[in-house]
Specification:
By secondary structure, the protein is an alpha/beta fold. It folds into 3 domains: about 210 residues, Rossmann fold (3-Layer(aba) Sandwich); about 60 residues, no CATH class; about 200 residues, Rossmann fold. Strands 3-4-6-8-7-9-10-11-12-13-14 form an 11-stranded mixed β-sheet, sandwiched between helices. A 3-stranded mixed β-sheet has the order 1-2-5, with no helix packed on it. Helix 7 packs across helix 9 and helix 14 packs parallel to helix 16. It is globular and about 70 Å long.
Amino acid sequence: MSEMTQQPAVQLREGAVRGRSEAGVYAFLGIPYAGPPFGANRMQPPQPVTPWDGERDATAYGPTAPKGDYPPQFQALFPEVVIPGQECLNLNVWTPDPGATGLPVLVWIHGGSFMNGSGSVAEYNGAAFARDGVVCVTINYRLSAEGFLFLGDGVANLGLLDQLAALQWVQRNIAAFGGDPARVTVAGESAGAMSVTTLLSMPLAGGLFSQAIAQSGAGAHTLTQDEARTVAGYLAEKLNIPAERAALGAVPLEDFIRAASDLVVEVQTTPDPAKWGRLALSLLPFAPVIDVSVLPEAPLTSIAAGQGSGVPLLIGSNRDEARLFLVAASTIDLIDDAALGAAAGAYGLSGDALAVYRANRPGASPGDILAAVITDWFFRVPPIRVAEARAAAAAAPGTAVRIGPAAGSPAAAANTWMYRFDHPAPADNHGFGACHGVEIPFVFGNIGRDEIRPLVGDVPSQAVADQVHRVWVDFITSGSPGWAAYEPGRRTTALLASALEPADDPAGDERALWDGIR
């Protein structure tokens, strides 16, 4: 292979970039999709990239968005990447062949509670997708108050606008890497999945992607304008300045990030309902806000009205999501029956409902049962509500499929597929089980990385990785993951581990307990 082949160059609308050969595919890293969000552009909508002359080096990851640290208990589980620099609104592309045409595209939106993460996290390396014929793109977007502060001044949801700008870049440029702009699947996990379902519900996102995947997150965790203004007021109070964009934007970035992080630590460690209201349960003070122009309605409301109904959707969660938080904090064994009852009551479950969880888990500790309850409230039920809303929209007489700013002509709605990731058992990965975030290296085919061992265990299953990665590739390339679509009559859900096992309404008695609550 010649040096030119090992370091290929492609011509974009904004200028040429030169990448590198990586594991049999080509990687182009740190490409800006919007201008630096600093100076006059700080806390403002994303601005266009200034075109460049010559070839831009794209062989190393670009700067990451400003952010604080993960809480200490998560730092070893989710190794963070911090790269300084102004051009933090950048993305990375892996392709099997820049000279190809018509390849399917995956655009990955990272998680991290809208506070942490980046597109350059090692387990998001897209080489395995590229080897299977998929052009993989991972993006950065603004986080915390820089991305989701709401002041009621006409500027809102900057993190979502960044995601839209990245998807618009893909439409303009992905053909230069062999990708087809008409075959874009947008995917994400946790806050990334919340972003995906939010984008699915947004008229502004119409036409920017043709399929969607939401892993362990749905559009339930949005803020009302009153909630978001309350958060902004608390942030301004911490900084001892007015809750105004000019004053907040003048705060040195390091101080601003620290104050926002301290606010999140407060709501997550001392979630006083009298102070935080509904956020004492969601624990996400910085998240998409229902505003006038970017996110005009709550995502579930918009989806139920048919928005995004023409987009095939793969959505689901992990069997043991909440064990991440209870095991990492070393609190799962400290939960007693009284604490379990109080916590379940805070989520809306009666004593009789909690008895169903107990009966289904003979011999389980109160901490194990609480993990199951929190898993359902946070992660399992919201995707089910999205699937139900899409089914209701499809069944409504005269409802038009909506994928853009306006309703299209009546047509068959796209399918929704539900999954549950069931690997590993808690005994095999330090007690975490199939917890929040554990599926990502299996999806990306990156289980060989040493840094994932604290979460996935010392001997992650290659058979599970092969199975799950293939499901994602099949959906991205063919539009079907390989089992029956979800509909409320049967509620078919694929249980994913080393094999794919479709099941109708798994744990349906527990699901039904949340009707009218969640």
